[in-house]
Amino acid sequence: MTAVSATATEGSNTNYINCERGIWSWLTTVDHKRIALMYLFTLTLFFFAGGIAALAVRTELAFPGGQIMSADTYNRWFTAHGVIMIFLFIVPGIPAVMGNFLLPLMIGAYDVAFPKLNLLSLYVYWLGSLMALVSLGIHPVDTGWTFYAPYSIKTGSAVVWMTGAAFVLGFSSILTGLNFIVTIHKLRCPGMTWLRLPVFVWALYATSAIQVLATPVVGMTLMLLIFERAFGVCVFNPTCGGDPVLYEHFFWFYSHPVVYIMVLPAFGVIGEILPVFSRKPLFGYKAVVISSVGIAAVGFVVWAHHMLVSGISDFSAQFFSIATFLVAIPTAVKVFNWVSTMYKGSISFSTPMLYAMSFVFLFMIAGTTGIYLAAVAVDVFYHDTYFVVAHFHYTIQGGAVIGLIAALHYWFPKMFGRMYNDLVSRVAWFLVMLGFNLTFLPQFVLGMQGMPRRYYDYLPQFANLHLASTIGAYINAFGYSLAILNLFWAMAFSKKLAPKNPYDALGLEWRTQSPPIKDNFDVIPTVDDGPYAYGKPVATSH
Amino acid sequence: MGHSTGSSGHSELGHIVPLKVYRTVLAILLVLTVITVAVAQFDFGNLNLVVAMVVASVKAALVALFFMHLKYENPITWLYAAIPVFLLGLLLGGVFIDDPFRISPEDAVVADLSAEKMGEHHESHH
Amino acid sequence: MSHGEHASVLDDPQGPPHVHHMDPPTAYHAAKFGMWLFLATELLLFGVMFAAFAIFRWKYFEEFHKASKHLNWKLGAANTAVLLTSSYFAAMAVDHAQHGRNKKVLSSLLITIGCAVGFLVIKTIEYSEKYHHGYFPGGENFHEYKTFLPLYFCMTGIHALHVIIGMVLLGWVASLAAKNRFSERYYTPVEVGALYWHLVDLIWIYLFPLLYLVG
User: Fold this and answer.
1) Domain span at residue A425?
2) Domain shared by B27 and B51, yes or no
3) Other residues' Cβ atoms within 10 Å of the Cβ of residue A79
4) How many CA atoms lie within 13 A of A70 on its CB side?
5) Is 70 exceeded by the pLDDT of residue C34?
6) Do A217 and B91 touch (CB under 8 A)?
7) How many CA atoms lie within 13 A of C88 on its CB side?
8) Which residues, 6 or more positions from A98, have their beta carbon under 8 angstroms from its beta carbon?
9) Which pTM value belongs to this model?
10) Is the bond into A115 cis (omega within 30 degrees of 0)?
């Protein structure tokens, strides 16, 4: 921390990073920007931890037969990968880092509505993460990140610590969402009407609503699971009259909406980046807003598409299948809006733009393959195969993670007051794209050929595609490492200071200093237009 | 922004509810509790559950509207008070179109056997 | 937002605490809204158990009906009356706060907390009676009525936990009242604390008939 502050003062004014020194000032801060950075550093750590677990899994799968671990150990590695990546990394993800940093700036406020609650969210997140690490240290869980009953009731691994961790982490998520909703309602600056909000703010609002409304359900479900293990209460255990499928209902009631928590903010990020680097207003602002809220709403009605072959009734399978087709519609609307934004625009291929355009491409694949899975007759064959694994990695990694990386590159100058190495960032982008697609495109084929997921070994006919996938994983890992290390190096050592507004972007965050002062603005601004008026004469001021 | 127009008080912040309202609501709540218990002593079949839940909802509404001042809150608060109820209905709905409509293993076997019989019948016509 | 007005409100010993970025009315409404959002999460938390109860009641109708008869509805009804009364006094506490009557806020909150203690005493009597008949988690008859008793203990147990949390919260608010912290211009903790307490009452309004009467 001190290294960052020392060099940040060279040639720049007092800002939120250097205004106070010492680790205690960071740990007791209520400044949303500092809280965002602390989330960023923790999340990065867990991204690498989850990534190592991924490489362990892919290394085992490089060749048929056992390589470096037993089947039992394999179960623990893929569980660790899922739990770390989902609960410790991507769910807090963009809201915790970019949402915390940008929301007050974008709406013209000094801070969020409840700054101390914001700090509490961070502490609770750290507590939950610690509990997860304890679980991994004592006896790593082997149930998969879904903790399905009845195995999760019977298995000897440290399920209580891990589900307890998820419960605590859920609280952090709820508090962040609650804070953001109140902030957006109460702290918009004069002139910032609802329909002048940046789409990233709308995305955060929809995400926060899901965080507040969906998370309690999984919280209670995991509590019940803990009670089953600890006190022998009977809710999901079939031997005493419980119903394991009921666990799945309760679990997925949250765990489907959670994927929209992961990806809606990424949609928002893309909606911010594309207009800037197309020098064109966002196409169909209202449609983007309505579809964001629509995705959040419809996302609550589709959960049992994760259970189509779990033994649910035909009637409910049909219902959830149709509902899932419906949720694709608002997402498709967004894709049309993004493409139309770029159409006849003046495109500049900055690194954020490269990531944003890749996002559109990757998410198309993600969404379309989701439609196949939504069809019951098809899902009967694809469920629990690599087809599903490929689909959700395209949505989560190709969607949410790419969105986060795009955001970090785009707002980097604002957050840290300096520029990163452009060439290295582009090389890293290329490696990420190459690696990611090489890892997961073969997995669609593997799934279609019948390769089951969560298996540590496989028949020889799957060997070539698995090897390709493993090679892709290593390239992917290298690409991400390069991208992230490039950014961290720039944070600490880059001499290229960033101007207030390096891209001539609109939006209130670009009116502040880079990095911003502690209170964001000297005076609360007033706005009289939306943030996408590119191409109008007023917008092209230097 | 919540300026009170109540007769008994004038506050910059929240609405001041007349004390009579609180007392009346408490009385009604206690009476409704007695009714709930009384009805439960008789067996009306499924109606028992319906009556119990309806009465409970009336009580809940009274507590929310008057004790919690929801009656005087803005539409957004109403929305967030109502959405959980709706979501729970959704969850209940999703569970209730599943379990009660599952085919038991025995019935599934019967279905398979009939289909087999149909198939044999069909083949014999060739 | 004139600077002069702002300064005098903040200097007022019975005014709002200094909130740098929100004027007092906004801070008040934001806090209330925040608490309503939190109550929404609590509703959904308990809702899971209600949903589980509903589907298992459909599935094991006979067992649930029989099990419900084992519960002491008189104690349950007494607890209902106790909680309804406690809610009344919590609402009274808010009214007193709105008129700046700190002493009355304190006494109303103490009565509310007293009712909560009464609730927990009755609950303890119920639980220990269950324990002695083996109908407790780990007891020999615990699974006799399928999932009824497990859900009974989860639902009433988590509810009792929230009663305790509510007592702590209201106790803290009461301590502020004892220090004369509230006035017509500032009583946010009283209102927000009372809102939380009413939720505890709301949950019990549904728990009682469902578990004790209809089963």
Assistant:
1) 2-539
2) yes
3) 24
4) 3
5) yes
6) yes
7) 20
8) A36, A200, A265, A269, A404, A407, A408, A411
9) 0.93
10) no
The confidence score (pLDDT) of residue A43 equals: 98
SS3 (DSSP) at B12: coil
C34·A243 Cβ contact <8 A: no
| Closest of A538, A541, A106, A533 to residue A279, by C-alpha | A533
pLDDT greater at residue A172 or residue B116: A172
pLDDT score for B121 = 55
Q: Which residue numbers of C have CB closer than 8 Å to A's CBs?
A: 20-22, 26, 29-30, 33-34, 37-38, 40-42, 44-49, 51-52, 55-56, 59-60, 137-138, 142-143, 146-147, 150-151, 153-154, 158
Query: Whose CA is closest to A451, among A61, A113, A24?
Result: A61
Structure tokens that stand for A105 in this block: 């700036």
Query: How does pLDDT run across C77-129, given as a tens digit for each residue?
Result: 999 999 999 999 999 999 999 999 999 999 999 999 999 999 999 999 999 99
Do residues B81 and B32 both lie within one domain? no
Residues B39, B98: one domain? no
Q: Where are the domains of chain C?
A: 38-214
**Structural tokens at position A263:** 């990806």
Same domain assignment for residues B98 and B63:
no
pLDDT tier, A286 (very low <50, low <70, confident <90, very high otherwise): very high
Read off the pLDDT of each residue in A123-145 and give the average, rounded to a whole number.
Answer: 97
Q: How far is C61 from chain A (nearest CA, A)?
A: 13
ipTM above 0.95, yes or no: no
Provide the CATH topology of domain C38-214: Four Helix Bundle (Hemerythrin (Met), subunit A) (1.20.120)
Q: Are residues B56 and B113 in the same domain?
A: no
Q: Which chains touch B (3 or more CB pairs under 8 A)?
A: A, C
- State how far the Cα of A183 lies from the Cα of A186, in Å rounded to an integer: 5
Counted domains in chain A:
1
Q: Which domain holds residue B22?
A: 1-73
Q: Which two tokens stand for residue A521?
A: 């603005």
- B chain contacts of residue C201, beta-carbon cutoff 8 Å: 63, 67
C-beta atoms of B59 and C205 within 8 A: yes
Q: Choose between B14 and C100: higher pLDDT.
A: C100
